[in-house]
Design goal:
- The protein is mainly α and 226 residues long.
- A two-stranded antiparallel ribbon has the order 1-2.
- It is globular, with a radius of gyration of 20 Å.
Length: 226
């Protein structure tokens, strides 16, 4: 039933994307307030995000793979851009507990690079959640080793995770990056900056901020190509 429900929700949203579109804000009666806050999120957005979040954490492999595949389609079409759900997809992809879920792994193997390389905004979104992904996987790795649930050799190393995140956020692989490179100089002269060229700067900034402000071991990041 959960699998069917996820498929139905996805079909409805794909057919009627306006359901998740922002709605005009009613404001508080103050004309200035209404002008400054013209729209607010769709009331359907929160329950939809919650549904997909729960599906990624489901113990049922069919629900988990269906949720991941459906969410991938909605994110590729830009109907959903939530960074927390993107983070959930990346963690699910590397989580050793999903090793036996071939459908989920196959779907995400295709989705993650295509998502990042199709738009500069997508790659930048991946860069902003990269440190959170590494920190979460590092904690997960330590917990699994301590509990002896899986052997260390069965888990992807953090250096591999870091290398893939760097590859996914490579600005040179973003579609249209060559055109941006031609016009980038002009935008910089005008006070702007090329969209894709800044992605790895965003990633580097996130790593430095994480090292300075959190208790996460520096080994989590020093071990990776980032």
């Amino acid at each position: 039933m959960q699998t069917i429900a996820i498929q139905i929700i996805t079909d409805i949203l794909t057919t009627h994307p306006s359901l998740l579109a922002p709605v005009p804000s009613t404001g508080d009666g103050d004309e200035t307030s209404v002008t400054l806050s013209a729209t607010e999120p769709s009331p359907l957005l929160k329950p939809v995000l919650k549904t997909f979040s729960k599906s990624l954490k489901s113990e049922d492999v069919d629900v988990q793979s269906t949720g991941a595949s459906a969410l991938s389609k909605l994110m590729l079409s830009q109907l959903i851009t939530d960074p927390d759900l993107l983070k959930g997809l990346v963690i699910a992809f590397f989580d050793p507990e999903t090793n036996s879920n071939a459908s989920l792994r196959q779907a995400l193997t295709y989705f993650l690079p295509v998502y990042c390389h199709s738009r500069a905004a997508n790659a930048e979104r991946m860069a902003t959640i990269a440190t959170g992904v590494i920190a979460r996987l590092a904690a997960l790795r330590e917990a699994l080793i301590e509990d002896e649930d899986v052997e260390e050799s069965e888990m992807v190393t953090l250096s591999v995770v870091g290398g893939m995140l760097v590859d996914w956020t490579d600005p040179r692989k973003v579609i249209g990056s060559s055109e941006e490179a031609k016009t980038g100089k002009l935008r910089v002269e005008e006070g702007g900056a090329p969209d894709s060229d800044m992605i790895h700067f965003v990633l580097a900034e996130q790593i430095l901020e994480k090292l300075v402000t959190s208790q996460t071991s520096s080994k989590c990041f020093c071990a990776s190509p980032t």
